[in-house]
Design goal:
With 95 residues, this protein is an alpha+beta fold. The strands form two sheets. Strands 1-2-3-4 form a four-stranded antiparallel β-sheet, with helices on one face. A three-stranded antiparallel β-sheet has the order 5-7-6.
Length: 95
């Protein structure tokens, strides 16, 4: 069972599929959860769009708009829009 990821006041518990921000649970959709997990696991580096599509959508083709929408929803859920950085034409990075 993976240990919870703790970063920037956010705790991501993969075993219970729960994200908590400053102790308060956040209600997010499964793909948004997977998106956040992927970025948090890889903090400090850019996660490419192709990696996100593979890990979050299982390789199913999605548009850049779908990725941007997922990032937007994740930022709103986390309550801090600066935690997820868009690296234009490349992907996303946990700030």
């Amino acid at each position: 069972m993976p240990a919870a990821i703790q970063v920037d006041g956010v705790e991501i518990d993969e075993a219970s599929f729960e994200i908590r921000s400053n102790g308060a649970p956040l209600n997010v959709q499964p793909r948004v959860f997977d998106f956040v997990v992927c970025l948090a696991r890889n903090r400090g580096r850019v996660v490419t769009k192709a990696e996100l599509v593979e890990r979050v959508w299982g390789g199913i083709h999605v548009t850049d708009a779908a990725l941007a929408r997922c990032a937007c929803i994740a930022r709103k859920a986390l309550g801090d829009p600066t935690l997820i950085v868009t690296v234009h034409r490349r992907g996303y990075r946990w700030a």
